[in-house]
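Pipeline run #58 for the internal structure catalog. This entry was flagged by the ingest filter as a single-chain record with no existing model, so it goes straight to prediction. Upstream metadata was stripped on purpose; only the residue string is passed forward. Reviewer on rotation: M.T. Logging verbosity set to normal.
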Amino acid sequence: MNNRKRHTSFHLILATYVSLAFSPSLVQSQSITSSTDFEESINSLFAFISPGDPGCSLGIIERGKLTYSKSAGLANLDWEIPISTSSIFDVASVSKQFTASAIALLEIDGLLSLDDEVRKWIPEFKDYGAPITIRQLLNHTSGIRDYLSLMNLAGTDFNNVFTEFDAVELIVRQEGLNFPSGDQFLYSNSGYLLAAHIVRRITGKSLRAFLEERIFAPLNMTKTQVWDDSQEIVSKRATGYSLANDDWQIDHLLNFQMGGDGQILTSIDELVKWDNNFYQPVVGGNSLLQKLHDRGVLNNGDVIDYALGLTVDEYRGLKRVMHTGSWGGFRANITRYPDEHTSFILLCNRFDGTQELRITDVADLVLVDKFTEQNVTGVNLRSDGSPVNQPDQQLAPVSSETPDSQLATLKNYTGEYWSSELGVSFHINLEAEQLKIMRPNGSVTNLEYVKNKQYTGDGLVVYFESSSRMKIDTGRVLGITFIKEGV
């Protein structure tokens, strides 16, 4: 083991005794007021980042100014380059608010409506019976299957080159939805990938070019870009890392060459400029802000917390606007308390399987005199960093009863199954009276019996509709059909 190994697990939590006393104009600390004590407290909460480890950068913005920042750890382990507020991170799903802004600007321009059907702009998109609108794409209420989950199910290597056009082709190949459009909220990266493609169809420009012209250049965000070229050199870019076998390994998915659902590269310094646009809008005016904060509505009239690339809710009695991100070894969180004109940004290039992004802990300290409700548990995050507005699909518990199908019936389930929606074949094998799924990448999933021809394993729920047809559910993908070949 080298000196980059992590000796103890950690959580990104902030000790409740820390006080933030930046200037006389800010909330005054009740226990720590001197700058020396303040710095010591801040240093203690970053102590989980050992020398030689990847790390994080924290920024606190109050009334348009970056009033406090703290960076710790290395942006690049090979060259031992320290992280700073100018370090460039992949902010993953935090990118969605920029894609939503692009669509909103096109509506302001009169070039589209959020209530346009997707098929108006992507005519090859299937007709699923009920219309799917651009607004539903951005609200995560479209029912469209998540393309990243589809890739994962198919066993695709995320280090392979993958483009916007590859993703669109995969999405439009789907024969069904997770649910009728507008019926539910279920986070889906596909909606934002399609939104980026709609920008291209309407303007003839990539999302990168459009955002550069309409948002980044006007806000002087000269170091911010959409990552769509795996060969491009990016100055001051941090490398993503994940912990494996007690050592840090590069976890940086450079070959995803597209924007929409993620892939924006930026820094704390750059995001201060973006945050200011929510108070003094240079780009889009108040019309843009209103559209971005307009929360989604389900078919039954229920209002969800998710708006356009932003979650709009309350925390301890204060209005909160936020989004998180997770991709490879990167983690990101931008949380804004608009009525207090205070925002928090956390960018990290490390993931060890236990890290939690707890911007709420910072807010608890800075806004201690503003909150009207007692402290509560922070927002729950899924593995990709998206906020949990509702639980993911729950898998049925494995039954201890003997399967009603005997060994001969189990043998009938074996064979090669083809999915036209994924474009891959799965092999079902029977070993020691246990069914196994073998995917094209060589991975094997042991299937445990649940009930009524249902099996589960490794996050999959497999339904054998017959000896020649099965369907698979997994998280954000429901009802993928496989047909046995040669039957």
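catalog note: Confidence is low (pLDDT under 50) at residues 1-35, 378-395.
catalog note: The domain at 407-484 is CATH 2.40.128 (Lipocalin).
status: ready for reviewer M.T.
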